[in-house]
Amino acid sequence: MEVVIVQDAQAGGELIAEGIADLLRRKPDALLGVATGSTPLPIYDALTAKVRSGAVDVSRARIAQLDEYVGLPAGHPESYRSTVLRQVVEPLGLDADAFMGPDGSAEDVQAACEAYDRALAEAGGVDLQILGIGTDGHIGFNEPCSSLASRTRIKTLTEQTRIDNARFFEGDIDQVPHHVITQGIGTILEARHLVLLATGEGKAEAVAQTVEGPVAALVPASALQLHPHATVVVDEAAASRLKLADYFRHTYANKPAWQGL
């Protein structure tokens, strides 16, 4: 995989947003896979700025959701559907019908998982999937020891992940659902380009294990090593435990290989 070390989160967001803009110039109806949480916000902010300045046309772009809580009522402000609509779809000026995601309030959740997996394939597959990474190396909600061949499915959140996410529920862990629907690692790996953004010293160990450690279910993000086109963008703090940090700085010089192609 290519590893690009940038100065800070804003620089990482701008870099990835320009990569997305390049993709949309080549393929205006590209399907973009988006992640939630605080880490990817600089990407969405930078992409929105490009749209508003006229630097890129996203009118035909499509958006696909990575995961969703199970059991939250439709329209709940902290559902990932609501979050993606609020943070991505609306700022980009897209219609709600440009968005697709799993139904976390479905009566038959397993059937909803299978339906979403099929819908992604029928849509032509994800062209570029944005990913974050947990401190334990999870991607999406594929917690440690998830199958590297897993498909979209129901997962039980670990206590640590529920603690981490309580900040989105007024700090009350009792409001955080216990289960989620998540694209599986096997599903994620079917995207044509995977772009992971990680910032902060707290992600440094997970980044090092993902990039330089063995491919192992204990570190789900390490499966990116199996992908033919994976890009990891990290700030200096998140890169602090990479043994090959100097090599990555020299090789990519803040410019991933996908740019200019």
Fraction of residues in helix: 25-40%
CATH topology descriptor: Rossmann fold
**Between the first and last Cα atoms, what is the distance in angstroms?**
16 Å
Query: What's the SSE pattern?
Result: EHEHEEHEHEEHEHEHEH
- Could you name the CATH class? Alpha Beta
**Gross geometry:** globular
Question: How many DSSP-defined strands?
Answer: 10
* Structural class by sheet pairing and helices: alpha/beta
CATH architecture: 3-Layer(aba) Sandwich
Mean pLDDT across all amino acids = 94
Task: Compute the CA-based radius of gyration.
Answer: 17 Å
Report the uncertain regions. none
Total domain units: 1
User: Into which percentage range does the β-strand content fall?
Assistant: 15-25%
User: How many distinct helices?
Assistant: 8
Major sheet attributes: 7 strands, parallel
Strands ordered across the widest β-sheet: 1-10-9-6-2-3-5
GO cellular component, one term: cytoplasm
EC number: 3.5.99.6
Keywords: Allosteric enzyme, Carbohydrate metabolism, Hydrolase
Function: Catalyzes the reversible isomerization-deamination of glucosamine 6-phosphate (GlcN6P) to form fructose 6-phosphate (Fru6P) and ammonium ion.
Architecture overview:
Strand 9, helix 7 (204-212) and strand 10 (230-235) form a beta-alpha-beta unit. The longest helix has 18 residues, at 9-26. The chain has a 7-stranded parallel β-sheet with strand order 1-10-9-6-2-3-5, sandwiched between helices. A 3-stranded antiparallel β-sheet has the order 4-8-7, with helices on one face. The chain is globular, with a radius of gyration of 17 Å. With 261 residues, it is α/β, with parallel strands linked by helices. It has one domain: Rossmann fold, CATH 3.40.50. Helices cover 32% and strands 16% of the residues.
